[in-house]
């Protein structure tokens, strides 16, 4: 039994009453200072880990003003704050031991879109891709591109002056900021916009903080303009933050936003922004060029830029190799073929944009002609991607490069600390040769990718920062790269901000650094805003790269063996892909429903990692505890678990914080497939729940859910009584008391009886072995899970009928326990025993040579994940089986006529079997049907999740996000299908609509006079 794990507060709490005082002063947002929130906000995408004292989630500008005013009170003079956006910074920009101010939960409104002027006004918490989705109907977009665009907030982009791919064409965030609504540390609410001389004169005459700021910045810009011109590099990626070189615009206006953009929350809190918008390019194409040598790719990039392409991105062999095992590769593999006799060590992706198709083709012809002739033909080959879908798919791979570098085995992994240097593009190839020599000399592996047209290449050396020798390398490599970058005329921070690397600011700014301090003093004289970053107001020191605690400090305590045993929880690198705002993206449903970062894979991984640290400090190996737990009987520990559950001394157990976050995990496994690092929350969640409930009592619903596969045969015998309970208000009230709700009724039809009537035998190894080889080759065993078999037997019967139409002999698997419900709820000992029995049975069937086909994607894919190491046989998904037997399918055109077909795939299927949707389309296409894949996220049911009363609000919220709009938009002639039983169950529960499985639709298409209905269908006959 694991011990109680009291949470240790590693930083001093704010002065007594600060959070209460905020409420008294009118703060209307959320305030969180519990251990779970502090843990979740202690990391970003950097190598550092700093626990804040609390987190504030303001709802309005007025809330930000309240924060500033309360901080100014004498009692709270020692408290500092740090604004935070998407939390994906690579240099600790928003990490603080003070209080985090996060606008991403509530300040997420797009306030105004003016398509005529091409201007949008948004709150700071709006996500970039969310804004662009709203702008698309107007033919406009917010241009600065970055790899984290689906979770990066506008406020965060402004704070780091973010940019990425295409910056040579579109510039940086600061190039598109028209106005900023900021809150200063005296509580002033001010709109900063470019000022003509008359407006500037009026503001500098003001006797307040705003006037003082403008007087200070104007004087520095005027008096130091020559020195500013000498020190600031003439780069596309000039120095971000306190940008003295661009205070005076070309039109003579004074623009304070040049100082604010890139200031990383050290000068003011950003509440709103007015942004310049651009027309969406009408036509785009990508030329994907392969090279045997990475340096050749870098050198060729200069020639590509000279050909006036819109942008050039480069990826090295390390990132390319990792991409090949990622979820996105299936959709883009054809654009990066293997070349016979050579290995691709680098690729250039050249973007071509045009206003019409003819212009696009002319530009492509110019570039490809240059690639094919003379000295330029140094590549191994190239492909061209046209069309929005293919272009976006390739850019998606490139965007995932940051996360992909964390998807390696072992404790030595690429980390960010010198990853965004910028040098003049003409110097890049020579600079990178020296950079690589530096890392090679240290014996380090690394990955490289980036924006070669702008002279920026992201470099992540692989280190294990739980090792003292690797910790020293952070300082040694950083100092060496600073020197190297300066020698080549570049900057250390070309894209991702300064953050903890601010110690190098005085070196780069030279004698202008005191001017930066003056600006900081004018905005924040008491150094309360993100202190230690970029500049200090007086003699305070800047944060050094080896001042802050490292993630590796925690990892060292946990140990490599435990880290590797918990499904990448400890290896989450904080890239934040799970914060994707898009409702149609599978990962992560609980975060989309709540906007609570604790309830995301990153948040849960952080909590799990802290839990493992606390166990390690007490000398507890969770693996051994699990083994001991499985050898004991639950009844023997019942009294002790009851005492622990009731004992007030256990209220501060950190395990409760972890459990609360795990409770809202849908176990959909989208993270296991879609996270670049493959953090698998359902896997480590099960391990945690096993140990947690070894100490505390389980809720009543858990044993009921865990036993469902074994009890369903018994429940089937009393079907009328069961249906009475789940189908009446009184019965549902009783079920809610057990923690369950929205349970489906059992249909009248029995799969076992219907299969017997249809002469479909149960698959027994010895019976199948008795068949001739030819008979076995024509046989198929449908592995019907308990949920499909008992609650939706029509699917299995449709599969049986379809198999016979294909000239095959169908069998049904014997009744078995898949065990997924056991696994999800942490009954791992019972799961292992059940899985071994089922695996033995399926393995024996497989050894006879027959094909095994599952019906439900989630249950079928459990045989490939949860059964890893237990089952060698492959249980095919239906579409995998059908795609291999297309020649056996013949369509009836009369059935297809007049209908449109849309597939709503299960999220586990989409993310863990990425080829699955394309396989369904291939099958339908062979029948003459153009199958469209609906873009939907999680339906909210997710196995048993949506049947638990406490989860029902989240389940219904998720359904409303993407499934309900899709269903509401369907017409009478639209045939909508869902592959997951839980998805069909959710649709029936909320909308009263019966959705068919694709097998039922296909069975109708290949059957004469069959009618495809969005309702109960009769079992097909042979």
Low-pLDDT windows of residues = 1008-1022
Rg on CA atoms, Å: 30 Å
| Structural class by helix and strand composition | alpha/beta
Whole-number mean pLDDT: 93
- Tell me the strand order in the biggest sheet: 15-12-14-13-17-18-16
Please give the largest β-sheet.
Answer: 7 strands, antiparallel
Described by the principal axes of the CA atoms, the overall outline is globular
Strand runs, count: 25
Helix amount: 40-55%
Strand content: 5-15%
Q: Alpha-carbon distance between the termini?
A: 57 Å
Question: What multimeric state do the chains show?
Answer: single chain
Number of helical runs?
48
Keywords:
single chain; seven-stranded antiparallel beta sheet; five-stranded antiparallel beta sheet; 48 helices; 25 strands; 42% helix
Describe the structure.
The protein has 1022 residues and is an alpha/beta fold. It has 48 helices and 25 strands. The strands form six sheets. Strands 15-12-14-13-17-18-16 form a seven-stranded antiparallel beta sheet, with helices on both faces. A five-stranded antiparallel beta sheet has the order 5-6-10-8-9. Strands 1-2-4-3 form a four-stranded mixed beta sheet, with no helix packed on it. Mean pLDDT is 93; it is low at 1008-1022.
In short:
With 1022 residues, the chain is an alpha/beta fold. Strands 15-12-14-13-17-18-16 form a 7-stranded antiparallel beta sheet, with helices on both faces. A 5-stranded antiparallel beta sheet has the order 5-6-10-8-9. It has a 4-stranded mixed beta sheet with strand order 1-2-4-3, with no helix packed on it.
